[in-house]
Amino acid sequence: MQGGAVSSRSKEPIKPIPINFDDNRAKTDLGKKLFFEPRLSKSGWITCNSCHNLSTGGADNLPTSIGHKWMLGPINSPTVLNSKFNLAQFWDGRAKDLKEQAKGPIANPMEMASNHQLAVDVLQSIPEYVKWFKDVYGEGKITIDNVADAIAAFEETLTTPNSRFDSWLNGYDEKITADEKAGYDLFKDKGCIGCHNGFGVGGNSFKKFGTAKPYDKDTQTLGRYNVTKDENDKYVFKVPLLRNIELTAPYFHDASTWSLSEAVNVMAEYQLGIKLTENETSKIVAFLKTLTGDQPELIYPILPPSSANTPQPNRN
Hints:
By secondary structure, this protein is mostly helical. The chain has helices spanning about 25-35, 50, 100-105, 115-125, 125-135, 145-155, 165-170, 180-190, 225-230, 260-270, 280-290; strands spanning about 205-210, 235-240.
């Protein structure tokens, strides 16, 4: 069929990303500045964009992110793109939403290595930020809750609609090839769709890594267990989003492969207990590449200068 007519595709388990223009522009503009604000870090160098680079699929394309004093993080950094569709944030889901997540890296000694009071003091010392926070929140006193709220509001705008697969879902047959459509059929028939569905093609459930076969490449990272202390939650992780997956290598929480084909085969083996043929893998990968949508187009924000009262960067 053609032209976006209503069809049975509306019942597909994957849903097209909606386009939303109903955001608070003043708040998202403030959040954008804070997303790119290096002075939220102790060194005055690291930003949210350092680990969630909007030029590279909302991730940093590293096995683990580089933090304060070149320390390496313990786990692969997930993409910020479409993160509003996650049921919780971080691989282990310890943050209930983007606002709670935004507070974490600022005070993490291996990431931005600051603390919430220092971050607020830096912003409070800059007259332009005082004005912008007052315009958005009605008060000149800056709080870490409002800092996180503004960052989260900006991050919620970072969706990637209009993928070729979304166009197919909307009835435009010519947007995907026969092999890509066959890959989607395999994706459903083999069982991948059981975890990877919805707007984000994932992100809406927790699953054990190693359902069909114990995952032996990383036995140290315990996932949800660190949050719940429930033995049943060992090696349980939030199912990652598959939107823009071709842009966000390396894959899995342990960054154990840079190959999307290998990632598909690992999932088949450890999660589904099956072995795919080379042809099946190729077609599923072809389908996954149709999930790359329009990337956010941003004008880099110009940040206000520090004042005489602004705490100075500390690289120690």
